[in-house]
Design goal:
By secondary structure, this protein is α/β, with parallel strands linked by helices. It folds into three domains: about 180 residues, FAD/NAD(P)-binding domain (3-Layer(bba) Sandwich); about 90 residues, 2-Layer Sandwich (D-Amino Acid Oxidase, Chain A, domain 2); about 70 residues, no CATH class. The strands form three sheets. Strands 1, 2, 8, 9, 10, 11 and 17 form a seven-stranded mixed beta sheet that branches. A seven-stranded mixed beta sheet has the order 6-5-13-14-15-12-16. A three-stranded antiparallel beta sheet has the order 3-7-4. Helix 1 links the parallel strand 1 and strand 2.
């Protein structure tokens, strides 16, 4: 049974970011590291989008970036002011190639394509079982999400950011290549938080995505019909579907970190790294992977890694509202982006604001909804 200093169970975004940072830091050359995943990470299976004000370490693989975007509801359309931010898109295949090109330079880092079926912290090390063989590790990073943990309780709401998107190519120029549609709530809400999301690559090519923030998924046909209707309303009658993407991202403030042990750290969605109020993952994984690599140089007890912040509570308030009255999502996001000044909101969602800046963003939201949620949560934490 082979032993490693670090094993990553699942080579998701958080694992790959952390492994990359470990590799380029130069501080872990003597550590043996193994990444285990069922997927070879060679296909373009997803896209990540995020806003960023300065250059990031992944800039060389950014596929598209935009300096403004459109927000819309059934009353008006608002051009968003980014004030120095850029909205960036990275394709999954490009990210995988970027990370593995670096990891392959480091003989102490290995990857195996196997399925992890169990792991146990003995207190001295961690036994990791796959369908093919067993390994031991001094420390395990678990990037495999267990949906039953959050689903088996009622204290913390569990919603999903669920979507189907079509990469379409039209015969006529209809898209504004310089302006993605960040959220378009002008579509029928049907008692939920539903919006269209458009990432344009040219005036004839874009990803058009039907997205919901709600508890229950839809039948595929309902997402597809919504996209068809939206394209028709844009005046598009002739188009080719080049590719399709779909997903369901958990949105919850459930405290996954309570399942960490001295030697097992839950990361990524499995560790609550997904931004609960939006479902965005890339920037959170970027920020927390950097903190984790720094922690590895100074700490050894994984139960001490997580630090709960006030932003966790803000997310909980929003999810509490959407869980109880899901139809209010359009009202809340419309209030936040009413003035078109997106930069303070981006800074707030990236958890980089001061408390006074927090109040400036929160004060834009419907006060009655948030005060009621604040009261409920203050007596039930």
């Amino acid at each position: 049974m082979k032993h490693y200093n670090y094993i990553f169970a699942g080579a998701g975004l958080a694992s790959l970011m952390t492994a990359y940072r470990i590799a380029v830091s130069g501080n872990f050359k003597e550590k043996s590291i193994l990444l285990i995943d069922t997927d070879a990470k060679k296909t373009n299976d997803r896209t990540w989008c995020f806003w960023e004000k300065n250059e990031g370490f992944t800039d060389e693989i950014v596929y598209r970036k935009w300096s403004t975007a459109l927000f819309a509801n059934n009353k008006k359309r608002i051009d968003l002011e980014f004030n120095g931010y850029q909205y960036k898109m990275i394709r999954g295949a490009d990210f995988y190639n970027f990370v593995f090109a670096e990891l392959q330079k480091h003989p102490n880092i290995e990857f195996v394509q196997q399925k992890v079926v169990d792991f146990v912290d003995s207190g001295f090390n961690v036994l990791v079982k796959t369908e093919a063989e067993n390994y031991t590790a001094s420390k395990l990073f678990n990037n495999i999400y267990n949906p039953s943990l959050a689903a088996s309780q009622k204290k913390y709401p569990v919603l999903q950011q669920h979507f189907i998107g079509w990469h379409v190519k039209t015969t006529e120029p209809v898209f504004n290549a310089e302006k993605p549609v960040f959220m378009d709530f002008s579509i029928p809400q049907k008692g939920n938080t539903r919006f269209m999301y458009v990432l344009p690559f040219s005036n004839k090519e874009a990803i058009v995505e039907y997205t919901l923030f709600s508890a229950d998924l839809l039948a595929d046909a309902e997402y597809e019909q919504a996209i068809e209707d939206y394209l028709k309303n844009l005046g598009i009658s002739s188009y080719e579907i080049i590719a399709e993407e779909r997903g369901s991202i958990p949105m919850t403030s459930y405290p996954f970190w309570k399942h960490n042990t001295k030697n097992i750290l839950n990361i990524g969605t499995a560790g609550g790294w997904t931004k609960a109020s939006t479902g965005y993952t890339f920037k959170n994984a970027d920020r927390l992977s950097a903190k984790l690599v720094q922690f590895l140089s100074t700490g050894s007890d994984f139960t001490k890694f997580h630090k709960k912040s006030r932003f966790w509570f803000y997310d909980l308030l929003l999810l509490d509202i959407l869980d109880r009255t899901n139809q209010n999502g359009s009202q809340i996001f419309s209030a936040m982006f009413k003035t078109g000044k997106a930069a303070p909101i981006f800074k707030f969602l990236d958890e980089e604001t001061t408390f006074s800046e927090d109040i400036g963003v929160i004060s834009k939201c419907p006060k009655g909804l948030f005060l009621a949620s604040l009261f409920r949560r203050s007596v039930n934490l």
